[in-house]
Structures are given as C-alpha cells and as structure tokens.
Amino acid sequence: MSKPTPQQAILIKRVRGWMMFDWATQPFYTLGLTFIFGPYFAGVAAEHYLSSGLDPSSANANAQSIWSWGQALAGLIVAIIGILAGAYADSTGRRMPWIWASSVVFVVCSWMLWYMVPDGSAMWSSLIFFSIAFIAAELALVFTNAILPSLGDRQEVGKISGSGAALGYAGGIISLFIMLFFFFDEGGTTFLIGLEPGLGWLDAQTREGTRAVGPLIAIWFVIFMLPFFLWVRESKIPNRLGGLQQSLTDLKDTLKNMTQRPSLFAFMGAQMFYRDALNGLYAFGGVYAVLVLGWGQTQLGVFGILGGLSAAIVTWISGKYDRKLGPLPVIYFHISVLIFVSLCIIGMSRDSFFGLALQETSALPDVIFYICGAAIGGSGGGIYAASRSMMVRHTNPDRPTEAFGLFALAGKATAFLAPLLIGLFTYWLNDARLGFTPVVGLFILGMLLLRWVNPNGDQ
Asked: Domain 9-452: which topology?
C-alpha cells in the first residue's frame, strides 16, 4: 500500500476524530439514560413518593411521570433550538463553536448527577441537570452530524457513519463494564467480581458507587473528545455568509422543498414517529424494569450488556440485508419486532403475562424482558442504520448537508412526543406498565407512512 499524502493523512485523522464523538457521548445514553442513572432516579423517586403516603402503584406511576416530563421538555427544547441553531450554523458555516459550548454544558451538568442522594432531597435538581445535559448532548450531535458530509463522498460517508455508530456501541458496552465492575454498589459489592465500590473509596450506604455515574460520564467525555477537538478542523472562513435572517430563509426554503417530494416527505414523517417510539423504549426500558419487575442493578447490567452486544451484531447483519434487499424491507422488519416487544412490555408484569397468572417466584418475566432488551438493542441499531441508508437514496448529490439536516430534524422535531405521551398515559392510568401503550401507536403510525416511501428513493 502506498503511503498517504499529507492531505490524505489529515483527512484520515479528521475522520477518526469525528468518529470519536460517538465513543465519547455514548456512555451518557447507555449509563445515564437507560441502565444506571435513569433506573436509579426512578427507584429513589418511587421511594420518596412511597414515604409521603402514596400506595406502591401510585408511587411508581408518579416516579415514571416526572422522569417522562423531564424527557419531554428536554426533547421539545432540542427540537426548537436544534432547528434554529442548525439553520444558523448552516448559513454561516460555523459549527465548532456550538459543539464547544454544548460540550462545556454537558460536562458540568453530567458531573452534577453525583449529588442525586438516595433520600430524594436532590430529586428535582438532579432531574433538571440531567435534562440540560441531554439537551447539550443532542445539540452537539446535531452539529457533529452536519460535519459528516464533508468527510468523504456518498459511499465513504455511509461507511464512516456506520463505523462511528459501531464505535459508539463499543464505547457504551465498555463504559458499562467499568461502571458495573468498579462502581456498582448494590449490596455493598461490585458486579460479579465483588469489590467494594470505587475500590473502597466510595460509601455504599449513600449509593456513592451508583452516583459516580455522573463524574464517570463527564471524565470519559473530556478524555475521548480530545481527538475530536484536535483533529476535526473547520475552515476559519465561513462556507457561506449569512446571519439569522438568512438562516431562517434557508430553513423555510428547505421545508418548503420537502413538501414537494412525496417520498421524502413521507419518509421524514415516518421517521419522526418510529424513531421517537424507539427513543421512548431506550429512555424507559430500565425504568420499567425497576418499577414493574423490581429489578436491581445486577439484572439491569446484564440487560444492558445483552442489548449492546445485540446492537453491534444485528446492525452488522442488517447491513448485509440492506445491501441485498434495500433499506425499506429492513426498516419494516425492525418496526415489526419493536411493536411485538412493546406489546410484551405492556402485557407483562411480575405476576402475569397477558392475563396468564404466574407464580411470584417465576423467572419467566425476567427471561422475556432479557429477550426484549436484546431485541430493542438489535432492532434499534438496525433501524437507525437502515434509515440512514434510505436517507442517502433521498439525497440530492449537490445538497448533502441539507439532506442530513433533514435527517437530524426528523429524529429531533418530535423528540418530546413519546416521553410526553408515556407521562400522560402513566398519569391517567396510574400504571407504569400501561403507560407504554402510546409507543405501539407511534410505531404503527411510522409503519403506515412508509407505504408512500419509494424503495429506490427520491432524488
């Protein structure tokens, strides 16, 4: 192989730096949103409401409701700010300052999760800090994705994007292992290897091992974002000159043009629903396991590892079928799997499965939910990869940034919807399990809209 030219070497480093963003941010979603902090928050909140005189069912429902309200509000803010700030960044060609600002906010707010003490006194402040960290992470993702089209041609962009996502899943699994083996504090010892939390430096009685998830996320991000900031350079001369007014005009034109392309318009609408439903499963899967099945951190850890491994494997297999059949059949398949999983979640409790009574000691609910976790991880990764592939088929080669901007918009514009609906249904039905009902409806709406999507795309 010939030695790369200096220009090629710079581009290779830029690509590798860009891919490190997924590695750096994934622990927030794996540890913070799904498997460690989210379930811990739900458990603390449920105990708080239980001690205030509510019955167990109402306490669990209230705990899930406030978690969902926080996610809903954060998603709404991401949708509004992300659209406007993204349009402004596209008009000026300046994205790195936004990534720097979002990163600083993310690190500070993630660290503050350390103060989520088990007595519930910091419940509301911790929810606020987590929501702000979520907003910062999502905004950084919007601007990072906008850099992707500049890293290579259409074929290379797909490869780079997929490799970055795979790297992110690997980072999530490794960070989960570190958290479970060295900081996990259920029963005073760590997961499997039986060490004291933090090698004896952390107090298990005050759950310092679990609370360390915040500093771990922050430190991980600071260390592994260094290659991104060192190697991903942006031209100091803006790509285009324009201010706020120009950015709003560009955004208006982009949305207007989308309505004139039926296949693209239907695909954007479908994504809004099924990706939002998937985010709901990610955000509330661990919370459900704690509130409905009574899982502890050990079971959640196994659940997370299975989901991460399944995501890596199934996403790779889905790519093979995408190449053979096209992305649309792959998307249909994964939505069908996720609808089935959602129905299992709604129909299952500790003592019954779709009305079939189970013994209190039955392991069937645990086994089923482990399978559901693997399916959520696998189909979640597969559906995202296939959706990105379908977006390529709707991309105007002369305007790739606009296309990827629409892709980001579709994933964020209604990011508040699933948490909001889960919160409303949980509140109305006073049941954490039945609160998942809207997720099924969102998946079905997404599947119905895919009927108007051209399998070959619309360029």
From this structure: Growth Hormone; Chain: A; (1.20.1250)
